[in-house]
Every structure is written in C-alpha cells, then in structure tokens.
C-alpha cells in the first residue's frame, strides 16, 4: 500500500512571518469648553444674516421725531376741519380784543389816577397857601408819638407853628398832629400828614419824607421852594401874650386859624 502523505491542516499563511503591531495613538480627552466654542464659531460663520424688514421699518419710524410727524399732520387735519377752524379763528379774535380792552382800561385808569392826585389846587378855606422851603428827612419816632418810615407820606412842620398850637406839656396832644397838608410845586401836588416838629425849619418851611419829596423834586436837589395849604382846619389856640411876642413869626397863623 502506498504510504499516505501527511496532510497539512494549518492555514497557508500560518507560516508567514507576522508584522509588529502598530502602536495605538494616545487617547485625548475632549475639552467641553473648547468644543462648544468651536461649534459656536462654526455656526456663526455658516449661519447667513437674516434682515427683518418689519423691525427695521419700526426702528426707522422711532427715529423720526414726534414733532415732525405731528406738524406734518396739521395741514391735512386743518383742511378737513371747517367748523372747528372757524370757531378757532373767532376765539383768537375775541381773545385779542379782550386783551387789548384790558390793557386800554388799565392804562386809562392809571393815567386818570395820576392826574387826579398830582395836580390838585391848594385850598384856601382852612389857611394858605403859604410859600416856603421844602426839605426831606428820615422819620422815626416823632413829636406826635407816631413811628413812621420813609415810604409814608408824612411831614414835620416848623417848631414855631407846632409850639404855637400846643395846648399842654405833652407834644403828643398837639392839635396839629394828624392834620393833613397839601404841597404843590411846578404843577405837581401831594398830600401828607403832620407827625413831627422841625427844629431847623423857618415858619413856613416843611420837612417831608423822601417819598413825598420825590413827588415834587429829585433827592439830589435837596432843598426847593414850594407852596402849601391846610386840608383841614387847624385848631391853633394861641394866647394874646404869645401872639404879641411872636407877631412876626406866627401872627399870620394865629389870625387865620383862631
């Protein structure tokens, strides 16, 4: 019998030399933050820009000033409103007429008031008119017991006249206190009340406050001539001895007012 050949049961490439294994690449742990940033950048680069025309239009309208849009709408509204337009025109005319009327009345009353008080004649029934010098002073507590200010229309009469009218030792009880005098100069007049006694005044001089003086002259003038008269009857009660002793000074006053 023929001998049986040995059977090679192994695979054909079993006898071939084997290659060395390729070393595996090192495993890298991914960084979540880095991946998220890369994805965001990729999306940003690849995402096309979309323009919202509606939003752009609204933004443009917001940039338009309200004043311009309001003024632009006035002509169209005015042209369609016939009756309100007529009423508005009538109202404006009536308002202007009323303002002009008020101004005219105010000016007329002011002028009339000024003329009625600044150009009055001097009365003669109570004594006067007399001529003398007019000066001004700063009032305080006067001989009549009144405390006054420069803004008040008050005055001091001559000590000669004041003493001639005295009825006692108390100057507050002098009959001339509180009586009114009208002063006139260059077509202007002003009324003032007696509240004090002027030591430096001559018999027919008057010493007044600045507010009174400025009605008739400027403060820079200091001393001016004027005329004055009593607005009320001055109850001067002088004795015969005083009249005889001061005839040259107060005789005229005593004769007029006794």
TrEMBL record:
Q: Where is the composition biased (Low complexity)?
A: 35-46
| Keywords assigned by UniProt, alphabetized | Membrane, Signal, Transmembrane, Transmembrane helix
Question: Which residue ranges run through the membrane?
Answer: 87-109
Region span, Disordered:
1-62
Where is this chain compositionally biased, Polar residues type? 1-13
* Basic and acidic residues bias (residue ranges): 47-62
Q: Does the keyword Transcription apply?
A: no
Q: Which domain of life is it from?
A: Eukaryota
The cross-references to PANTHER family, in alphabetical order and at most eight, read: PTHR31836, SRCR DOMAIN-CONTAINING PROTEIN-RELATED
Name under which the protein is recorded: RlpA-like protein double-psi beta-barrel domain-containing protein
């Amino acid at each position: 019998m023929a001998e049986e050949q040995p059977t090679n049961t192994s695979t054909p490439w079993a006898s071939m030399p084997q290659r060395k294994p390729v070393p595996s690449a090192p495993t890298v742990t991914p960084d979540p933050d880095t991946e998220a940033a890369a994805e965001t950048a990729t999306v940003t680069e690849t995402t096309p820009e979309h323009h919202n025309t509606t939003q752009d239009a609204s933004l443009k309208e917001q940039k338009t000033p309200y004043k311009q849009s309001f003024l632009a709408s006035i002509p169209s509204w005015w042209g369609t409103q016939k009756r309100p337009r007529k009423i508005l025109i009538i109202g404006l005319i009536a308002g202007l007429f009323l303002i002009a009327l008020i101004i005219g009345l105010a000016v007329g009353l002011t002028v009339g008031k000024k003329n009625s008080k600044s150009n009055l004649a001097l009365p003669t029934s109570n004594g006067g008119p007399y001529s003398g010098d007019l000066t001004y002073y700063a009032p305080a507590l006067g001989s009549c017991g009144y405390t006054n200010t420069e803004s008040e229309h008050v005055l001091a009469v001559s000590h000669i006249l004041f003493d001639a009218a005295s009825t006692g030792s108390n100057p507050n009880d002098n009959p001339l206190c509180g009586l009114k005098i009208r002063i006139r100069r260059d077509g202007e007049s002003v009324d003032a009340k007696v509240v004090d006694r002027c030591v430096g005044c001559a018999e027919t001089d008057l010493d007044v406050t600045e507010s009174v003086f400025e009605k008739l002259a400027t403060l820079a003038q200091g001393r001016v001539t004027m005329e004055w008269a009593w607005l009320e009857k001055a109850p001067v009660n002088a004795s015969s001895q005083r009249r005889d002793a001061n005839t040259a000074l107060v005789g005229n006053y005593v004769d007029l007012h006794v």
